[in-house]
Design goal:
- This protein is of the alpha+beta class and 162 residues long.
- The protein has one domain.
- Helices cover 16% and strands 44% of the residues.
- It has 1 helix and 11 strands, in the order H-E-E-E-E-E-E-E-E-E-E-E.
- It has a 6-stranded antiparallel beta sheet, with no helix packed on it. A 5-stranded antiparallel beta sheet has the order 3-4-5-7-8, with no helix packed on it.
- The chain is globular and about 35 Å long.
- The termini are far apart.
- 28% of the residues are buried.
Length: 162
């Protein structure tokens, strides 16, 4: 009889833990994990300051066969030729090399970089849409959010650097 009571108590505790785990997983990263992506140029805020995409380029050294490391800037310069500005807010993201829709997560995230404070905010909420990948460009859209002061939404085009 004693073994049966312990076994029953263990089973109730295990069921409770399973329910708690499922509840936590359902609420993890509260908010819409796949928010819609607008048709505007990629824009929003970094560090509470307005930001709008002007130049985006891949980094050949950090890219792989399945993804491109991409730096996005609100400053205009010749991608893959000129050095990007070191004093400009930027978005750092690893974009999948295959067209499709992707949810941000701890494994696929986007970093908001505030140059004035050198702070980095890593967004794990949002979505990426890759429309096309050619030998020279990546086209798509994104909607990333860390908090109200670090959020972007819209379409992008990235120059793939050799």
């Amino acid at each position: 009889m004693l073994l049966d009571m312990h076994t029953q108590a263990f089973m109730r505790a295990a069921q409770g833990m399973l329910c708690l785990g499922m509840l936590l997983m359902a609420n993890c990263g509260s908010g819409d994990s796949n928010p819609p992506i607008s048709e505007q140029n990629l824009s929003g805020k970094i560090g509470g300051q307005p930001w709008s995409l002007a130049t985006a380029q891949s980094d050949a050294f950090l890219s792989t066969s399945t993804s491109y490391w991409v730096d996005m800037f609100a400053t205009t310069f010749t991608a893959c030729q000129d050095s990007p500005p070191s004093d400009a807010n930027s978005i750092l993201v690893e974009l999948p090399s295959t067209p499709g829709n992707y949810s941000l997560s701890t494994a696929l995230n986007a970093t908001f970089y505030d140059a004035s404070t050198s702070y980095n905010w890593v967004a794990t909420r949002g979505s990426i849409r890759i429309d096309s990948v050619t030998s020279t460009t990546i086209s798509g859209g994104a909607n990333f959010t860390y908090n109200a002061d670090n959020t972007i939404d819209g379409k992008f085009q990235v120059t793939i650097c050799p």
